[in-house]
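Troubleshooting entry. Yesterday's outputs looked truncated, so today I'm pasting the complete records for two proteins to confirm everything comes through intact. If either block looks cut off, that's the bug. Protein one:
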Amino acid sequence: MKLGVYPSRKTIIAAGVGYESDIYYFNNPYVTLNTESDVKFLEINDNQPSEGTCKTRLVTRYITFPVTFTYMIRPDWGAKISLIPGLNHLSSHTGMKYKIENDDNTMKFSDNPKDFVNRYKLDLRLAIRGKYFGFFIQPSLLPVFVNNDKKVYPIKIGIFI
């Protein structure tokens, strides 16, 4: 859903509500969350489950409230800057997801690190759009993890049609 205001023929200010799902894949097959101290951290675990090969991913979901300013360079070309705040939505479908496969079957289990993943997000999106396509870069201004030994700021780059 998007609402827009047109202060002039070349500028547009819009606000909306959105939904975002981010999935982070790890190079190492078995990554666990170490919560034994005040500072939590992701740990590459050498003690992989012996039932088969393991894959780990982190799933996050957000309700977002983007605010966008667009300046139309020409009627079919524009530059956009967006501020995208969001609120993390925790559920049984988010968190650390593990998938163990062997010859016979597949086993899945999860761990929901509610005190580890940041409850809030704030992204800045810069975009150039044309009549048929566009390009954007979207760095995060807040880290993905809290109470952690390392700060991780993801960057999204893409095209849209």
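Protein two, checking that the full record survives here as well:
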Amino acid sequence: MGYITNFLLESFSSYALTFLIASSSLFEPFRLFIVNKFPKLRIGVNKHPIYCRMCIGFWTSLVCTLVLGNYADTLAVWGLSYFLATQEK
């Protein structure tokens, strides 16, 4: 596959994984486990980072780029996947 195809595949995969982990009811038990297991990750009165789509998006972007071996594109993939998340409304 070409560079652009891999980049788009990584970006859309990261976007989908971010939505599933941070927002879907399918992963609600997982999020509650993380919140209860690691309460000190919460900063001040803000939400826990497991609910932050920008935070989770970075880690899913890193995983998606590592799977295809394009780890140098992590920030670009993260940017496109977060842009896609802002277009939902």
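Both blocks look complete. Sanity check on protein two: The chain has a mean pLDDT of 92.
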